[in-house]
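Checklist before submission:
- one chain only
- standard amino acids only
- sequence pasted in full

Submission:
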Amino acid sequence: MALDLTLLASGPQTCAACGTRFEAVLFDPPLARATVTRLGEAGPAAGTACANHTGNLATAHCGRCGLLICDLCRIETEGVVLCPACFARLTAGDALASTRSRYTDLTGVSFLISLVGLMMCFLAPLLGPAAAYCAVRAARQRREVGAARAAPVAALIVALLVTGLGLFFLGMIIYGIVSA
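Returned file contents:
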């Protein structure tokens, strides 16, 4: 489901499809927020040139690499001023929470692991705890974003049942071997 961009504003938002809360930051083009000062207009003693646009006056420095940048290059996110190169690196590495576009649903992973554990009972003693771990991580994930935690709790219950079933199955195999 696509977001309705006409309703979107900077600040806390809730996804209409899944109810997950997220923080939205609208892009504010530099030309709309300030006019870029040309270095020639400011005079030779006014300042230093932008590293990317030699004709523009540098008005800030990158909080990560220290590069001098103009208003056109300035990207302010999560309380830090970044140059375009550092912003691209941090975005590509998912280091900036405000630019993450992927979300791994660990609840679904937990249910999937539990299903495999049910289908292969001899692996259930191993897969059940793995599914329980994913369910606990999913509950923490959802707590962080403010979403409901009913699904991870259900996944945890299923994972514990799979673990119990696997241990029962393993016990039956051991009992069968010992009593034979």
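Reviewer check: The radius of gyration is 26 Å.
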